[in-house]
Amino acid sequence: MSLLFITGTSTEVGKTIVTAALAATARAAGAEVAVCKPAQTGVAPGEPGDLAEITRLTGVTRTLELARYPDPLAPDTAARRSGHPLLTLAETAAAIESTSDADLTLVEGAGGLLVRIGEFTLLDLAQKLNAPVLLVTAAGLGTLNHTELTTRTLQSAGIHCPGLVIGSWPTTPDLAAECNRTDLPAVSGVDLVGAIPEGAARRTPDDFTATAPTWFDPDWITRHLNPHS
């Protein structure tokens, strides 16, 4: 099983759409893809969550959600408020390992790297499963500090970060965004391997799946998403 975790420098930086774009790109390369979102918050039972959005955009139907809490909070806080037990590291790792027959399993975290998904963080989970962690970052002012803090944490923990992806590249980028395309890899030591155009989630599924591979570096796709590489 090939694993790729997706985290962000913060919440609302585009992790779900990046995960969808990765899934669409891997499928276009011939991979069988599974997507896991261990904990979904801010969505009531029966309502579509992040995994439903990924399915809508990409057609991936092998998805796995382990817990759902209605309050839009960090998963551990939301679990306590709802009276539900916290997810454990062991049960979450075992659930992800149950998708081992897929060519690629994408695991989307909640918020940033150190947000507690249950009794653990995404960093803890990545360490347990020895999984690389792709970092989704913002385009504008402030992103350099947030990005370097996260990549330094990953490096200190011995976790490989195979790339940075800008979660929403503005239609009309300002000076800070243009400079950050050069500065992000310089300050973090991690290559910028993709940028998702602003408004990508509003595209039709056909357009999304057809264009998603163009949003990533083609050599990076071959190394990390192609099941035959």
Report what the structure shows.
This protein has 229 residues and is an alpha/beta fold. It has nine helices and seven strands, in the order βαβαβααβαβαβαβαα. It has helices at 15-28, 50-58, 75-82, 89-97, 122-129, 143-156, 175-188, 205-211, 218-224, and strands at 2-8, 33-41, 63-69, 104-112, 133-137, 164-169, 192-197. The chain has a seven-stranded parallel β-sheet with strand order 3-2-4-1-5-6-7, with helices on both faces. Helix 1 packs parallel to helix 2.
Question: Secondary-structure blueprint of this entry?
Answer:
Blueprint: E1 2-8, H1 15-28, E2 33-41, H2 50-58, E3 63-69, H3 75-82, H4 89-97, E4 104-112, H5 122-129, E5 133-137, H6 143-156, E6 164-169, H7 175-188, E7 192-197, H8 205-211, H9 218-224
Parallel strand pairs: 1-4, 1-5, 2-3, 2-4, 5-6, 6-7
